Amino acid sequence: MNTLGELFRVSICGESHGEALVATIDGVPAGLAVDHEQLRAAMLRRQGEGRFVTTRREPDEVVFVAGVYQGHTTGAPIALLIKNRDARSEDYTQLMHHPRPGHADMVASVRYKGFNDPRGGGAYSGRLTAAMVAAGTIAKLVLAPAELHAELIQVGPSTRRAEWDALLAATATRGDSLGGIVALRGNGLPIGIGEPPFDGVEPLLAKALMAIPGARGVEFGDGFASASMLGSEHNDPYLDGQGHTATNHAGGANGGLTNGNELTLRVAFKPTPSIARPQETFHLSQKRMETLRIGGRHDVCFALRPPVIVESYAAIALADLLLRSKRSSEHTPPRHARKAHRGVNPNDFLGRSTDWRKG
Questions:
Q1: Which domain holds residue 221?
Q2: Short-list 274, 172, 286, 263, CA closest to 213
């Protein structure tokens, strides 16, 4: 499926070296002010900067084809387009028959019987996150005043920022790559957002975030460290009737619903699979192991770029859950407003005397 969401739905299509990336967004409320400067800033954040990210430099100009008029959303579906202008497809000619380890080249070729577009990873490339970041800026408007902020907290094995440049430089010199971890914090989310069990806030966020190319794991709150804790250590005591807690080991969610505290999660990204270092791997047409030397332009550490990507994918999932929660609330009166349970009374259904058999 190329669609994420139920009420707030984002669909994307395109390939890394195709003509363009396209996204459609359904369910956007009318009257939201689209800030083009914020959109541009988000697209620049996705590209990253410095010598350890890809040298492919796309202008990433977002063109709204429909759904935005005079700077505001119209309430109609939004369609947006981002042209690819800096692709170098000649770098990928050999990969049709010599698939790259760690990429989707091999499995996509088998699944689609060789008709898939292999250039730059095709539809499986991180390039498609550009369309999701653009859509994510709209999702953030739906979530406001709630805010999401993501940052890189680990590169390879190191959590010390002062070590990162030297670590990245040494890895690049060896023709290799590194992974990393991105942490997301969400503040201002109302209590009770989520559609448990299967579309609870944690399951749906995990589904969305694991769709980011290169994502290998998602954990909420204390995550896997929770397995080593005692219940008395992990429990978050309540401080008031609004759900605020003294600690936040749960990461802002209980039972698939936001609990009113800060939402915290982390996403682990694998090392960039396209590396300059020669690799011995199977050649499909030669039917033997051969040395693969990958050309093209690639990140030493893709995790340098995903903070805004993580924000965007999370914003889309949360915007959908927020709208679904509002829909549910509109059809659910407060308990005190309901009639006390009296059992089944035929008058409630027939609108006539209890002795209804007499006509």
A1: 3-330
A2: 274
